[in-house]
Amino acid sequence: MTEQSDASRVRIEPWTEADLPLLRRTNAPEMTAHLGGPETEEKLLVRHRRYVEWAGTGTGRRFSIVLVPEREAVGSIGYSERVWRGETVYETGWKVLPAYQGRGIATAAAAAAVAAARADGRRRHLHAFPSVSNAASNAICRRLGFSLMGECDFEFPPGSFMRSNDWRLEL
What CA–CA distance (Å, rounded) separates 120 from 34? Predict the structure, then answer.
């Protein structure tokens, strides 16, 4: 028996102060295995502040991924500026809580984030850098029409390097 897709019930909503508990839930070992492991509470609070403040800067956006009509937050997604190979681009990344994975939620949220980055109109390219071993995130990039530019060594979070795929989407 396959689970019903929840993709049609997905909304992305701007990150707010109220999303700190969600950030803590996505900081679990199983959620950060491809990202260098969980961050300290201090680093989480800095990240949360950055996410809240991005909306007014024009340098990025963070969203909570919400299922409707329940209004249940099940993950996060966003994009932010990064200089990559001499070009200022947007970088995107997402996390969906384990109980909600495999239902099309991340793909639907990523499509909505792509639309937001495109509507922003400030950058030509959106990149995603999932670990080469993260099959699910690489599949999302493929489904959404990103072009695989190749493998690279990528630093995320700061101080932690991983072998990643560089996926690029024309905005």
Answer: 29
Residues 6+ apart with CB under 8 A from 133: 34, 163
Walk along the chain (171 residues) in steps of 10 and give the mean pLDDT of each run: 66 97 94 83 95 89 96 96 96 95 96 96 96 94 98 84 94 96
Domain boundaries, the chain: 7-170
Is the CB of residue 157 less than 8 Å from the CB of residue 35? Answer: yes
Q: Tell how far CA 147 is from the center of its chain.
A: 17
Q: Could you tell me which of 106, 91, 98 has the C-alpha nearest to residue 144? A: 106
CATH 3.40.50.1980 fits 7-170, yes or no: no
pLDDT score, position 160: 77
* CA dist., res. 163 & res. 61, Å (int): 25
- Asked, as a colleague might, if the bond just before 69 is cis with ω within 30 of 0, I would say yes
Residue 155: per-residue pLDDT: 84
Cβ neighbours around 118 below 10 Å, total? 14
Let me know: does 78 contact 91? Beta carbons within 8 Å. Answer: no
Handedness of CA 115, 117, 122, 125 (dihedral sign): negative
N-to-C CA span, the chain:
37
Which pTM does this prediction carry? Answer: 0.90
